Amino acid sequence: xxRLLLLALLSAAxxxxxxxxxxxxxxxxxxLGPDQLLLRVPRAGGSGRIYHYPKLDSVVWTLDEAPPLDRxxxxxxxxxxxxYVDAKGFPGRIDLRETDxxxxxxxxxxxxxxANGSDIYGINPKGEIVRLNPSGGDWHFKPPVPAxxxxxxxxxxxxxAANKGAQTLVWKVRPPxxxxxDSTVLPxxxxxxxxxxxxxxxxxxDSGLVGVKVKDLSPLGxxxxxxxxxxxxxxxxxxxxxxxxxGDSSLSVVDRYSGRVESxxxxxAPPEDLRMDPLGRYLIARFPKADSAWxxxxxxxxxxxxxxxxxxxxxPTITPDGEVATLADKDVVLLDPEKLSVKSTVAGGAKDxxxxxxxxxxxxxxxxxxxxxxxxxEPVYDSLSASSTPPTASSTPTTDSVPSVTQPPSAxxxxxxxxxxxxxxxxxxxxxxxxxxxxxxxxxxxxAGSPIYRVVLGPYATRDEAIKVARASKREYxxxxxxx
Length: 484
What we know:
Layout: H1 2-28, E1 35-42, E2 46-52, E3 55-66, E4 69-76, E5 81-86, E6 91-95, E7 100-103, E8 110-113, E9 120-123, E10 129-132, E11 139-141, E12 149-152, E13 158-164, E14 167-173, E15 182-187, E16 192-194, E17 200-205, E18 208-213, E19 223-224, E20 229-234, E21 240-245, E22 250-255, E23 261-266, E24 274-276, E25 282-286, E26 292-297, E27 302-308, E28 317-318, E29 324-327, E30 332-335, E31 342-346, E32 352-359, E33 413-420, H2 423-431, E34 434-435, E35 438-439, E36 441-447, E37 450-460, H3 463-473, E38 478-481
Antiparallel strand pairs: 1-2, 1-32, 2-3, 4-5, 5-6, 6-7, 8-9, 9-10, 10-11, 12-13, 13-14, 14-15, 16-17, 17-18, 18-19, 20-21, 21-22, 22-23, 24-25, 25-26, 26-27, 28-29, 29-30, 30-31, 33-37, 33-38, 34-35, 36-37
């Protein structure tokens, strides 16, 4: 009897184990966090495209007239704007929501910087700090001495540096105020870098580094190095700084807390440049002559090996899923970071500028998000049709009544092509989308107090019918349940 009972328990346990994955599979399909995206723009300018990485055959956004990009300064996830510097040195913005691009300044500025992907800071020929705001509220600040560099920090503060004689003057200001909040004096300094958190800025001096705490501009202890600093990069957390010095094949690793060189990484030759993984997993060091680079595992400061690649402002880099994107003559080759073996090849990818970022702005908005919340037993009044006459007793639910919950009938399925902030642009887009003799139309809704103009077709009776129409449009689309 005991044996039969044991077999029954084991059978029930096995049944539960087999059933468990089915009960949890639904949660796996839910998106967790922002989508990983890749912007690709032809290096000579042209049609820009955004993909859901790593699905490089899934274009989710296109821009017909994108300029040739030199580098990206920052991304604003709230506004959906990418701040860039073009190949001619002019700053600009790409608006992902309105599918628009434009220069932010007709005048060329130096030391361009942005921390929020919206405001752009630079230095004009007079040495003044200029803020370029997307709403047109530009701001100017004239420091006591013409500025040499400016750092926009995530805290909203600005650090401004200028050289005067054998000294470097550093000021902290907070736009739009033009009052200097703090200042300090450093030895004559050269290049400087800020930690990603914006709490410290390090300046290169003769055979070493000096730094300041942004909070109060208090100086950090000087860090001595073997020779003149050639290039440096901090980890994303700022706990370590990797420094390459002239004529030295060893990479110095400076510990933030001790302020000393705690370890080093030795190469076959002095590295020419350094590039940090945005997530702090690996460091890429450029070989000085040939088209190749080294990769270092940050966790252990272990030199993994070398790989072939050309060096550009965007590539090589570490992708969001941890692969190494390398630049070949015509293609982009993705490598395993530990084995340095080829994982995949993006044919023709070398002709594009690559920028990885994370955002959830391309997801369709759930239909029920904007529906009012109601509770069982409470009357529901329509604010648009309500009169000043109170409801009668017969229309008020009694405490004994139990409200029934019914599912509303389906309102069909709608094909959505774009959601824009400008009505004229939405209408222009709608006029270009014609399927089966039917032209797309514009519907208006309000999100966070701002009007949104959606270009749609439908509704259609079934999802299959809506998808058939959407595919016939040969446009990017998404299908959602409900009327426009």
